[in-house]
Amino acid sequence: MPKITVGLAMTLLIIGNIIGVFSDALIKTLPADTAIYQFVLFRQLTAVLILLPFCLLSNKQSLFAGLKWHFIRGHIWLLGTIFMVFALGALPLATVNAIFYTAPLLMLPLAMILFQEKLTSHSIAAAVLGFIGVLIVVKPTQINWAAIAALVVALTMAVNNLLVRKLPQHHNVFQTLMLTNLVGIPAALGLA
Question: What is this structure's pTM?
Answer without folding.
Answer: 0.83
